[in-house]
User: What shape does this take?
Amino acid sequence: MKVLVTGAAGQLGRDVVERFAASGHEVVAAGRGDLDISRRDQVLGAMGAVRPDAVVNCAAYTAVDDCETDADRAFAVNSLAVRHLAEAARRFDAHLCHLSTDYVFSGDKPEPYHEWDRPDPRSVYGASKLAGEQEAGEVATVVRTSWLCGRHGANMVGTVLRLAADDGPMNFVTDQRGSPSFTPDVAAVIERLCVDRLPGLYHVTNQGEASWYELAREVMVAAGLDPDRVASITTAELVPPRAAPRPANSVLKNRALALAGLELPVDFREPLRRLVSELLG
Assistant: This one.
């Protein structure tokens, strides 16, 4: 296939590009400097010039707290831009795969969220991403993922290793739980969904769940360091406090993948150990 990847300079985008290229697909990687997806004219022009078989939208405004005071930008990039991509995909017969987030849920449910649970975002970021899902349309693939970590960009694993190199405090919250997900594994599922042009909504995360506190301890163990250096706090104790509310529970159950008979990503501890080894090596 020929694949256009937007947001290709980001953490997930870079691994999506690498995954498709490694499988022999022709990949056109577009960062924000190459393509501003909030501009309809740019989207239509790029799609018309590239004529991809599939477009994977990894571009997003992900500054969760900043979205609270810049809602227009959040909805322009995370919502209206997806309308432009969906329009261009229809016009040029490309399959759209759009990336979304666990923040579309309130976090009030005690069990993991599956694809048929009702979204109820509590933040501007979550609301804008839910609107983007709706703009993608019924024939698109929508992939919700969460707590992404990878070799590229800032993420939890890199943060813990950086803090561990100093003597300062390592405080992480215990009252937020999620599904740690690793970009190579998510990218592999995205490739499969695009090759088969599977429409609909899929939760794509590594298996297993953790709090940020538990995940930090897992990183320390994988690095051969003392996990007891990590201290537990609550979200209310964060300094400074966060502007946007976080879901207390955003564990995503990969029900649609399982029911479709598709292979689920492995337990998060396996790619976590590989990533720590790569970052320390």
